[in-house]
Amino acid sequence: MRVLARLRRETAASQIAEAALVLPIVFTLLLGIYWVGRAMNVYATINQAARQGARAAVTASCATCGNQPLGVDQVADQVRVALQASRLDPNLVVPNIGASYAACSGGAASCVQPTTGPNVPQICYFYNVQLNQPISGPPTGPPACGVVVTFQYPYPLNLPLGSQQIPLTAQIQMEGEN
Amino acid sequence: MQLARELRRTIRRLVRDTMGSNLLEFAVALPLLVVFVIGMFDFGTAFNLKQKLNNAVRGAARFGSSLPTDDLTQPTPTSVLAMRDDVSRYLVSAQINDCALGSAAATPSGTLAWTFTANSGCPGTLTLTIERGYSFPVTLANINNPVNVIATHVTISYPFAWHFNRVIQLLVKGATYAGVTQISTDAVVPNPN
Using only C-alpha atoms, what is the Rg of chain B? Predict the structure, then answer.
C-alpha cells in the first residue's frame, strides 16, 4: 500500500509513459501524410491511365483502314499500358458501375467491359454518349458526343490505428473528334 | 496582512511549480495545429476544385468552338445552352454542386457573349460566361499586321466555402472571415474555320 502511494507521487520516467500515449498519434499523422500523398499520386495516375484510354478511343484509327473506332479491348489495353508503366496492377481494377450517361442515339447508355483475362483492367467504357445531357428537362441544343472511361482502383491506407481499403475512382470523359 | 503573505507564498510556489505545464503548452499549441491542419485540407480541396472547374470549361470551350454559328443571332442561342449543359453535366459527374446552373437563363453580355448566374444550394454565386466571338491578335512570321484569331472563351467563377473560417477564431479572437472565395478559371479554344 505504501509502495503504491509512493509510485503515485513519483514523476520520474513519466515522459516515457507520455511518449507511449503520444507516439501512436504522431506516427499516424506522419504516416498519414505519406499514405494520403501516395493516394493522391495513385489517383492522378489512374486518371491519367483512363485519359490515355479515352484519348485513344476518340481518335478514329485511320481513314484508309475504314475509320473503325477502337473496341473496348483495345481501350482497356491502353489503360493497362499506362497503369503498368506506373507500377500499378491492372488486375486490381474494378469497373465503376455507378456511372450513368445517356446515349447519343437516345435512351440510357450502358458501359461495356473488356474480355476478362490476365492483366486486362476491367474498365467501364461508354461509347457515343451525350456529355452535355441536361440535368433535367429536354435537350437544349447540339449534343456533345464522346466517350467515358471509368473504373475504380482499391487503395490500401495503412495506418498504425487501423488499415482501410479505399476505392479510388478514375472517370474521364472526352468529346469525340469531328 | 496574514492573508497577503499567505497569498504571496502561494503565488511564488505556483510560479516554481512545473506540474501540468505540458498540458498548458498543449493548450497553446492545439489551436495553431488545428488551424494548420484544416488549412492544409482546405487548400488541397481548393486546388482540386480549380482543376475540375478548368477541365469543365475546357471541355465546353472545345465543344463550343466546333459548333455552327448560325444560331448566334437569336437572343438565347441553343448552342450556348448546350455549352452550359456541358459544364453543368461535367460538374455533376465530378461530384461538384452545380448551383442549379443547368436551369440558369442566359443574359447577353457584350458581343457574342452570354452570362449565366446560379446560386441555388451554394454559399455564393456561380458565374459562367461564354464568349463565342472572343478574338486575340497573333503575329505571324513574314506578315506585318497581326492576325485576329477568333476563339471560344469560357470563364467560370465558383463560390468556394473555406472550412478554415470555422477554426480561425481559435487563433485570433474575434477574427471574422467571409469564408467564401470565388475560384475562377477560363479556357480559350480557337474556332476552326
Answer: 28
Backbone angles phi, psi at A123, to 5 degrees: -80, 165
pLDDT means over runs of 10, chain A (178 residues): 78 82 87 90 95 89 70 93 95 90 87 93 93 84 90 89 88 85
Q: What is the ipTM of this complex?
A: 0.80
d(CA B87, CA B52): 10
pTM tops 0.90, yes or no:
no
Distance from CA of A176 to the nearest CA of B (A): 9
Inter-chain touch B93–A133, beta carbons under 8 Å: no
Which residues of chain A neighbour B84 with C-beta distances below 8 Å? 140
Q: Which of B148, B53, B56, B92 minimizes the C-alpha distance to A102?
A: B92
Q: State how far the Cα of A29 lies from the Cα of A23, in Å rounded to an integer.
A: 10
Cα–Cα dist A112/A131, whole Å: 17
B106 contacts in chain A (CB < 8 Å): none
Q: Which chain A residues are within 8 Å of B98, Cβ to Cβ?
A: 135
Name the packing angle between helices B78-93 and B21-65 (round to 10°): 150
> Cα-flanking dihedrals φ and ψ of residue A109, to 5°?
-95, 150
Q: What number of residues does chain A have?
A: 178
Residue with cell 465558383: B158
